[in-house]
Amino acid sequence: MKKLLFILIAVLPCALNAQNYLLTYTPNPGEAMGLENAIRLGIENNTELLRIRQNILITEQKVKENTFFRYPQISLLATASVYNLETPMVLPEDLGLRLLTPDAYKSDTFYGAGITATQYLYSGGRISGAIELSKANLKEEQSRYDTVKNNVILEVKTAFYTLLYAQLALKDAQEFYDKAAALHKKIDSKTWDSVSADAAFERARKNLNAAKTDEQTARLAMTKAVNRELNSPVNILGDLTPEVFDHNLNTLKLRAMENRPEMRAAIYEVAAQDININLTSAKTYPDVILSASFERVGEDGLTDTNTQASVAVRLPISYSLTSLAKQKKARQKESYLKRSSMEDNINVQVAENFDNCSFWSSEVWEREGAYEKLKTKFSQAAKSASVSLSALNALEELYKTRVSYLEAVKENKVAKVRLEWAIGQDL
């Protein structure tokens, strides 16, 4: 119990530091959602999270149910029996195990009413162990909920930034197409350059159609991420700007060990297996039970009084105890191995996403510099140079550089999102 309490104290502050997305959100038709509202909507509508919430409620009730065994078990019983006997008989256990005897000189009816209280004075730790086990199961279920919630947040954030990128890419593709159309008209159709100009203009058309398709695909993914109906419009509002990244890998690994709900679930599973082993050992300990009852009985009315108080010692004998203990120890070892494997996987995920985030954090600025430089040169050339095939080709190269930069910004944002998922906490 002390070990489990230490674990709970260690991980509770980490859980409280997590981003709070518990507020409900109901968007108005056509309303543009920000990122946080999109996350709230995704969490609120996710069917897997709703299912786990029900499991948490069930497990909470199981904790209460096991806690009740600490208190006296009280039962009330009232009976009215009409009998015609030739030999004595005992009423069923549900009717109080009352003894009825045939007697020609007495009434053939019997009445009884009473109260019984039974209290475990000692159970070898079985009751307290069952309570702690149900609490560990509750914490494990809550950690599973947090795991699914983190996955939902990852999906929503990724879809959000992908849609932002697709919208900007579509806008740029439309501008590129319009400018390419204007330049294409100014090129003499009777020259060899017109052939290449037609091909360049065709590429602009294909880029625009591809951007429209990508935007529709991204919007569908966003609709799915927030669990809206496919015919419901999903509009978002956000800023696609690069993130500055300056973190230490070892520090992030430590934070991941503290914050990842999968790690907490593995810890609670180990604690549960430790409790199971203790419960198995407790089956060799005796039960000490105190029972007391008061009842009024009689054949024509409740005229007689019976009272009793008893102390019983019950020692269970199990032939399968050795086999059961081996099973529990094997499961305990399995839980320790699972926890160790989980720790290794988390460290790998943090390292991979750290490298990816570091790459895009530097690459995005390189691509921005290349785009701004090319944009400046294009503007200078447009002021003095005459319209030709070179102008159309330069416009296409400028568009490619612009899309490349937007892609880098999107990857920069998504890389940070995935790193936050890997450490289980917003940066």
3D architecture notes:
The protein has 427 residues and is α+β, with helices and mostly antiparallel strands. The strands form 3 sheets. It has a 4-stranded antiparallel sheet, with no helix packed on it. A two-stranded parallel sheet has the order 1-6. β3 and β4 form a beta hairpin. α4 runs antiparallel to α5, α4 packs antiparallel against α9 and α6 packs across α8. The longest helix has 64 residues. It is elongated, with a radius of gyration of 36 Å.
Short summary of the structure?
The protein is of the alpha+beta class. It has helices at residues 2-16, 35-45, 47-67, 126-185, 192-225, 249-259, 261-282, 321-384, 389-423, and strands at residues 32-33, 73-82, 89-90, 99-100, 109-122, 235-236, 287-298, 304-314.
Offer a few descriptive terms.
single chain; 427 residues; alpha+beta; four-stranded antiparallel beta sheet; two-stranded parallel ribbon; 9 helices; elongated; disordered N terminus
- Largest sheet, strands/sense/barrel: 4 strands, antiparallel
Total number of helical segments? 9
Helicity, as a percent range: 55-70%
Quaternary state, please?
single chain
Give the termini distance in whole angstroms: 34 Å
Number of strands: 8
Spatial extent as radius of gyration = 36 Å
The sequence of SSEs as H and E is HEHHEEEEHHEHHEEHH
